[in-house]
Amino acid sequence: TIEQQTAEAYISPARRKKTTPKPPSPESDLLFGASNAPSKTSVAPAISKKPSQPSIQRPTTSSPQQPANAIPRPSPRIPKRNIPPISPSALRSSHTSRQAGTASFKRGDYSEAANHYSSALAPLPPTHLLAIPLLTNRALSHLKTGDPKKCITDSNTALDLIGPTRGVGETIDLGDEGNKDMFSYWGKAMTRQAEALEQLERWADAGAAWKACVEAGVGGATSIAGRNRCDKVVKGPGPQNLSATASRPTTTKRPPPKPKPKPKTSALDDLSGNSASATATDVESGEAVTRLRAANLEAERLDDERFALSDRVSERVARWRNGKEGNLRALLASLDAVLWEGSGWKKVGMGELILAGKVKVVYMKGIGKVHPDKLPTTATTEQRM
Hints:
It is a single chain. The protein is mostly helical and 385 residues long. Helices cover 52% and strands 2% of the residues. The protein is built from 14 helices and 2 strands. The chain has helices at residues 2-7, 88-107, 110-121, 131-144, 148-162, 182-199, 203-216, 221-235, 239-247, 267-272, 276-321, 328-333, 356-370, 381-384; strands at 171-173, 179-181. A two-stranded antiparallel sheet has the order 1-2. Strand 1 and strand 2 (179-181) form a beta hairpin.
């Protein structure tokens, strides 16, 4: 009826629930009393499903495979070294001297460190691998003392012991310090050789050494800067620098100012000799000549006095320095023997010079006492010498 239709709520087609068709019920088998439907063990009917999306294969991070005909790179072969035998006593003596050299180097006594490294090399056979770190350390000591030729000699000897393989994959047994990579000592020898060649101004050889360090990945920014520095000296300024200098505007020089005209004097002043300008000029020139003569006489007197005192001062300094050339602590402890009376120097004992920081403080105080700019104006010629 109409009332029943109005009582029912209106449902839009989009919201209406669609009924899913039910599968037909299996017909019963009248002959055997069982249904024609397949049993649970039989294959279930295929249910239609949405086609699955194709799986996305992500690229693997493994390295690409080399073709079968590619030639494999041979790995560097470690050479078979014939290490000469060494007695335990010689090894112990070398180790003690090497530790003493390291302590002297840390103290800043580079000449003493070089002597200790030489003592450590003495009991070792020339071709022993333990000589490599000693040679590189002694090369650095020579570089610090300003002897680049000896530094180059030690660096070349160490490089010859390492060989053309540069020590890749090899180690050196340093006993208590463990095994050290031989390639690191090759890098030390190369960088110290390059620095020594730069000190000798052999720019082409130094550039080649720095280039080898850069190619081997040794030294980092220091090797790159050294290579660029040597290339700049050998090749000269680049085209950019030449163009920059050529593009600079040339500044025109101003003409020198014209001299001011001298004041004219009258004829009466010239005849009487009362010219003010002439009188002032003569007085100034006379005073200048007098001062110049006095300065020359004073310089001659000082030269004669220095010549007379040179032997005595040299002998006094030689007695103070004799036997203590490489011992900075002994020189500072006996500095009062060579300074003059009233210098204000306070004697320092050896017990106060144990620490490296204290040695530096006393050394700077000594420089302040004998530096020419720090001497008082009343100092004598002997004190200034």
